[in-house]
């Protein structure tokens, strides 16, 4: 069931491991194997049948800050915007932060893949600019499920890279039990970027993709367990 974002106008839905009609593979540009391609196309078909968009925009995400006006699947970018009714924007994540945007009047929506690289490269500002260019005012955002601070260990070089931008970011780090390492609040960093852009945080789904194995895939968890990583969460937003 899709959930209401802007009353009677904009809705969102997060497809995680509890969505049993999908095996969690949605990224078409990752596979050459015919079996995998058939599987992901079936996953997308199942979502399209339930969600019934005119088009489902699934980007080729590259951890950059480019934002496109959505036209369908396969555009290379990490953010998208549309004013088209029934065009579903989406974000693929498996620890990174999915952010969904809507203007208060429900006329313009956006979606962004906020890994630390994209967030640091100001993809949120780029979404904000394109949405405003399309007539958006009073933009609101939803932060979806992502890796939480207790699960996100980073090294001292990572820490120094952020502190060089703004000393205030020290508040987003706490020392790890491992000497020379820190635990980083990635969704907190994304929230700070939203605040700087003047975007209201409507909802934060503060669930940990790393620790909630039954519900969410996690790239870092798969890596730490020596497992092959393939699944994603698909966070979607649509104007009805």
Condensed summary:
This protein is an alpha+beta fold and 240 residues long. It has helices spanning 34-51, 116-120, 123-133, 156-163, 186-196, 219-225, and strands at 3-6, 10-15, 55-57, 67-69, 79-82, 87-93, 97-103, 109-114, 139-143, 153-155, 173-175, 181-184, 200-204, 233-239. It has one domain (3-148, 201-239): CNF1/YfiH-like putative cysteine hydrolases (4-Layer Sandwich), CATH 3.60.140.10.
Properties at a glance:
240 residues; six-stranded mixed sheet; five-stranded mixed sheet; 6 helices; 25% helix; globular
Explain the overall architecture.
There is one protein chain. This protein is of the alpha+beta class. The protein has one domain (3-148, 201-239): CNF1/YfiH-like putative cysteine hydrolases. 25% of the residues lie in helices and 28% in strands. It is built from six helices and 14 strands. A six-stranded mixed β-sheet has the order 4-5-8-7-9-13. It has a five-stranded mixed β-sheet with strand order 1-2-14-6-3, with no helix packed on it. Strands 10-12-11 form a three-stranded antiparallel β-sheet. A hairpin with a 5-residue loop joins β7 (97-103) and β8. It is globular, with a radius of gyration of 17 Å. The protein starts with a strand and ends with a strand. The relative contact order is 0.20.
């Amino acid at each position: 069931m899709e959930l209401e974002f802007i009353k009677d106008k904009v809705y969102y839905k997060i497809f995680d491991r509890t969505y049993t009609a999908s095996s969690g593979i949605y990224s078409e540009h990752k596979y050459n194997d015919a079996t995998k391609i058939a599987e992901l196309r079936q996953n997308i078909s199942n979502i399209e049948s339930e969600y019934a968009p005119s088009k489902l925009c699934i980007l080729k995400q590259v951890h950059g800050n480019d934002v496109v006006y959505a036209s369908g699947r396969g555009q290379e970018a990490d953010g998208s915007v549309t004013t088209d009714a029934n065009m579903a924007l989406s974000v693929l994540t498996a620890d990174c932060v999915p952010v969904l945007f809507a203007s208060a009047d429900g006329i313009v929506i956006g979606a962004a893949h906020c890994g630390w690289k994209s967030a640091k490269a100001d993809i949120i500002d780029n979404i904000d600019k394109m949405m405003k260019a399309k007539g958006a005012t009073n933009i609101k955002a939803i932060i979806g499920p992502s890796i939480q601070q207790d699960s996100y260990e980073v090294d001292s070089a990572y820490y120094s890279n952020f502190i060089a931008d703004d000393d205030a970011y020290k508040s987003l780090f706490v020392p790890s039990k491992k000497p020379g390492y820190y635990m980083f609040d990635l969704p907190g960093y994304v929230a700070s970027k939203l605040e700087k852009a003047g975007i209201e945080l409507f909802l934060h789904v503060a669930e940990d993709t790393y620790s909630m194995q039954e519900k969410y895939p996690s790239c870092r968890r798969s890596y730490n367990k020596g497992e092959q990583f393939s699944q994603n969460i698909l966070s979607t937003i649509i104007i009805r």
